[in-house]
Amino acid sequence: MSFIRTLRGDIMPEELGFTYSHEHIICRPAFWEERGENDLLLDDEEKSKKDVLDFKQHGGKAIVDATAVDYGRDVKAVKKISDDLNIHIIATAGFNKSFLWDAKIKDDLKPIIGDYSTYTDWIDSKSINELADFVVSEVEQGLEATTFKAGQVKFGTGYNRITPLEEKTLRAVARAHHETKAPLHSHTEAGTMGLEQIELLKSEGVDLSFMSFGHMDRNPDPYYHEQIARTGAYLCFDGIGKIKYAPESTRINCILELVRKGYENQILISGDTARKSYYKHYDYGLGLEYIIAKWVPRFIDDANRQGFDGTALVHKFFIENAARCFRFAK
Questions:
Q1: Who is most buried in 47, 103, 205, 294, counting CB within 10 A?
Q2: Of 3.40.50.12500, 3.90.1170.40, 3.40.50.2000, 3.20.20.140, which CATH number belongs to 4-325?
Q3: pLDDT digits over 95-110, tens only?
Q4: 277-290: buried (b, 16+ CB within 10 Å) or exposed (e) per residue?
């Protein structure tokens, strides 16, 4: 029987509800902390909680927190927000991308990871299967010495390249997926290297219908999107509200082009809201309410004008597709 694993336990897919598929709720990435990049530190539980509450008050039910171990998770604080607001949160096991791994490993992680100086040292010193065992433990035992378990496994690659250590973590995550049956997610820097990731995943025997590719709207290329969709994988358009990269019309047109080609069952939507300046209650940004309260009505209107049923598509992207994507394989 399929299920979805949240920080509060396993639920049936139909219980998930309206879902943001890629967000960050509380994180203190060591890489950015060491460089004094305060905007990239979501470090105030109460402010994060207020933004999650805004999302809930507009009808939101679930959030996928894509913060991996190398991006400064605070598992206990995120679990508390989940409990306090009665909202489903899916946590993430695995890794991000290699340039972050130059950061020092914090002392409180060393009893779990080992006495290594940096993430690079740790990943370089371990075998693929040893890293896979670590990811499995995050899914089946708990994240960072807690009993709160991850509901997806993640890897990432850099801009227009895949380093040897990134390939190593990709293969480790693929093997952890086979053992745990957890859904997979990837970080694609600026939407690149998705097809190359797919070839590596195929070599590990991964069924790509359990895979979601992040940041697809950072590379607004309909041909590229179609090549990924043809594999059965999900495409996550998670840059909603980031006009500095592209206007909303570009993202919406890419989404509707996939719908025209018959891939409406493989589309996910979110905001990857990972800066103080993106959050309403940190720094007056659009906040977690923006997509559900403002973008969704605009998408419905735009889709309807182009001959689609915008309301039905919103239900599909945020509810039906999320419920399928984040289920564990049988």
A1: 103
A2: 3.20.20.140
A3: 999 999 999 999 999 9
A4: ebbbbbeebbbbbb
